[in-house]
């Protein structure tokens, strides 16, 4: 069953499908497949939690090692052989050997990176579904809505539920790309590819001082439009914008060259990765003029955030795995609404407690060889969720 409506540029229709309510054996089969997925997710959580602790501690030790060895450079325009092979710290303005060009649009800029961003006006499908039970059948009501939007990727309209009237072109006539300067320096030092990759603070380039490059291209604001009427675009029309990162020369419209702070190993006139005794690599670049202490503080903060993010991901993976593995108990009693709801609450509480305890034990095991006292404390904390769960179980009444 389908219903259609058209409201301006936005169109929508509703489709309702139905299927017989699955029997007990079919639901049990689906639950068994979910248990296998849950088991794999459960094992993956142990790997993520355990390796994350080793990574975090190794990174912290490497940063402490780097802070104790780094040599600040007073003059970035002269290369001292005394610092050959050592970890150095320097700040200065970026410079490149020649500007980056986009001859198709008559544009050039003295920067480390220049990005051409192309978007096409296309139909986009949105889907909103809900399921309900009626007359012993499972019915699914899906509302499909279509709207025209600017998208940087080609939207395949063949996958739409209703392609008629919502057909998109299969490719763009103009492609996006990013140009990178082959030689980037700070003073007399040449930055490695890894350091150049860290220059990614892209800003949109103003096109107000440029003229239309071709007769079929119209400039509107900070975009070049391949359209007969940019104010009323049609499906298939293009618009192009530009972004730059790492301004490497004084520009009358953009200002002075960007300043960066670098910590890396000096090898001749190049700045390359520094391998620490802990097994990590130090190759750091931040925008702005920062002291040694500020750089390593930022790196420690970044390591802490990454560590907690992976801990949360590991706990969530373990919770999902336990929930899927214990789902079979819910399936066995889903014929009885009251019992089903109680079992569902109990299984969720069980998954939270067990996931918390096992996560803490895994983290403690990861710390065992590095910080044994902290590992012991975490192991003791791992027992707390289980004790809390046991304390909520009512004692048996004496007869």
TrEMBL record:
Any one Gene Ontology cellular component term annotated for this protein: endoplasmic reticulum membrane
Membrane-crossing segments per the record: 31-50, 312-333, 345-367, 373-389
Domain of life (superkingdom): Eukaryota
GO biological process: lipid metabolic process; nuclear membrane organization
Topology in the lipid bilayer: Multi-pass membrane protein
One family name in Pfam for this protein: TMEM43
Keywords, sorted A to Z: Endoplasmic reticulum, Membrane, Nucleus, Transmembrane, Transmembrane helix
Subcellular location: Endomembrane system; Endoplasmic reticulum membrane; Nucleus envelope
InterPro entries: TMEM43_fam
Classification via PANTHER family: PTHR13416, TRANSMEMBRANE PROTEIN 43 (PTHR13416:SF2)
Recorded family membership: Belongs to the TMEM43 family.
Name of the featured protein: TMM43 protein
Source species of the chain: Aegithalos caudatus
Lineage of producing organism: Eukaryota, Metazoa, Chordata, Craniata, Vertebrata
């Amino acid at each position: 069953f389908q219903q259609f409506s058209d409201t301006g540029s936005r169109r929508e229709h509703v489709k309702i499908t139905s299927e017989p309510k699955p029997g007990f054996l079919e639901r049990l089969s689906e639950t068994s497949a979910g248990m296998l997925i849950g088991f794999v997710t459960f094992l993956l959580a142990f790997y993520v939690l355990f390796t994350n602790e080793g990574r975090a501690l190794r990174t912290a030790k490497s940063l402490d090692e780097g802070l104790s060895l780094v040599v600040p450079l007073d003059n970035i325009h002269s290369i001292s052989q005394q610092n050959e092979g050592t970890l150095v710290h320097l700040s200065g303005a970026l410079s490149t050997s020649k500007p980056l060009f986009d001859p198709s649009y008559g544009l050039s800029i003295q920067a480390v990176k220049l990005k051409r961003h192309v978007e096409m006006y296309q139909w986009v499908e949105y889907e909103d579904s809900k399921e309900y039970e009626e007359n012993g059948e499972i019915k699914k009501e899906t509302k499909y809505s279509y709207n025209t939007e600017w998208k940087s990727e080609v939207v395949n309209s063949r996958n739409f539920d209703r392609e008629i009237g919502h057909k998109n072109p299969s490719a763009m006539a103009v492609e996006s790309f990013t140009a990178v300067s082959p030689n980037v320096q700070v003073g007399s030092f040449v930055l490695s590819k890894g350091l150049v990759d860290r220059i990614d603070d892209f800003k949109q380039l103003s096109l107000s001082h440029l003229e239309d490059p071709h007769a079929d291209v119209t400039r509107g604001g900070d975009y070049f439009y391949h359209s007969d009427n940019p104010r009323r675009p049609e499906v298939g029309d293009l618009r192009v914008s530009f972004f730059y990162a790492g301004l490497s020369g004084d520009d009358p419209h953009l200002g002075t060259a960007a300043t960066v702070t670098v910590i890396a190993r000096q090898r001749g006139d190049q700045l390359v990765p520094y391998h620490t005794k802990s097994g990590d690599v130090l190759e750091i670049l931040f925008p702005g003029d920062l002291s040694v202490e500020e750089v390593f503080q930022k790196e420690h903060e970044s390591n802490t955030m990454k560590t907690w993010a992976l801990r949360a991901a590991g706990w969530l993976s373990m919770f999902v795995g336990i929930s899927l593995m214990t789902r079979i108990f819910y399936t066995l009693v889903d014929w009885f609404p009251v019992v089903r709801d109680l079992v569902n609450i109990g299984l969720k509480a069980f998954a939270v407690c067990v996931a918390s305890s096992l996560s803490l034990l895994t983290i403690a095991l990861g710390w065992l060889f590095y910080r044994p006292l902290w590992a012991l404390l975490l192991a003791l904390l791992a027992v707390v969720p289980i004790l809390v769960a046991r304390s909520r179980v009512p004692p048996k009444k004496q007869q």
